[in-house]
Write a structure and sequence with these properties.
three-stranded antiparallel beta sheet, 0% helix, Jelly Rolls, mainly beta
């Protein structure tokens, strides 16, 4: 989904991403927008690398909500077996 589906919003995009158990999505960033996440199933771990050189790792379970400020590098790993 993006502003073509929801015309009132010009700064949002949405996607359904499935990561297989034990797999990590590549490190990436979004230079223009924050990222919000909602965890539908399973459990995972995300590490966010801030522009000041610090990093934080967060653990998520079903119904967890995550966020990444724009331009911060991050990766997500499915920690289920």
């Amino acid at each position: 989904m993006d502003s073509s589906n929801i015309p009132i919003s010009k700064t949002i995009a949405a996607a359904l991403v499935e990561i297989e158990p034990g797999v990590m999505r590549e490190i990436h960033r979004h230079p223009n927008n924050d990222e919000w996440q909602y965890y539908l199933t399973g459990q995972g771990r995300m590490t966010v690398f801030a522009e000041n050189g610090t990093a934080r790792t967060f653990a998520y379970r079903v119904s967890g909500v995550g966020s990444v400020p724009f331009s911060n590098w991050h990766y997500i790993q499915n920690t289920c077996n």
